What we know:
globular; Rossmann fold; 48% helix; 13% strand; 8 helices; alpha/beta
Amino acid sequence: MTTERSAIVTGSTSGIGLAIATALAQSGHDVMLNGLGKPEEIEATRARLADQHGVEVLYSGADMSSPESVGEMVAKAEQAFGKVDILVNNAGIQHVAPIEEFPAGKWDQILAINLSASFHTIRHALPGMKSRKFGRIIQLASAHALVASPFKSAYVAAKHGIAGLTKTVALEGAEHGVTANAVCPGYVLTPLVEKQIPEQAKARGISEDAVIRDVLLAAQPTKRFVTVEEVASLVLFLAGDTAGSITGAIIPIDGGWTCH
Length: 260
């Protein structure tokens, strides 16, 4: 398959990020993966995507909390692919605790990975996009970019920050063929959400089943988790030519959560 465009997807060794990387590869894009996991499993994923879809798939183990490491990842992709056309900022972590018990170190880590990392990937990728008059920057925000929930002070603050960053980048790229949008999923049953269930149960003093029923899905009128494939399809659309006039949008994909 002849590829015309290339992408970086951070946090793409599992969950939403892997679904997005898979959708891009299926559509003929070269992709750089990034994220955590066992080296042999990551290599198997990389090789599978490359072999199945006839595209180049690379992996960067960049530490998203390190500005230097982020810059090296973007430079590696530009060198290998010749350019970075699509940047999907998906990497994120979570910690759930009442604010008076929230560890300061966790606050710093969440802000670094969930917000500052996006700033650093964008500042390195944007100049090339502007020079080529094409770029797609897609931020995986959250319904928490639009509304808050208790016990998630750092995560909610970071995702609200992502919304503001996205709008600013959209304005700066508007005359250069570069769009920037934020996709805001509701609850998706990913490893990140699965980890929250016992944490929420402990914080609220309820069972894990009650967390799923009365906390997570209570917010979503559809009463079901958003799927990774649904999120990936929206990202793929925003990455394409027909989305050229969509920029600065903060788009919920949350089963109606933010209609409340």
